[in-house]
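Appendix B, example 12.
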Amino acid sequence: MTEGTVLRADVFRPADEGRHPVIMTHGPYAKGLEFAEGHPNM
């Protein structure tokens, strides 16, 4: 990222080998905060 922006992520991987689909949510704040907790009215 430009201008010193830092990106952070929590990555969870299945214990077994093989291909798995990616389930992802993202937003500008609160790494580790579940979407439903941050947006209870949705």
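The chain has a mean pLDDT of 80. Helices lie at 35-38.
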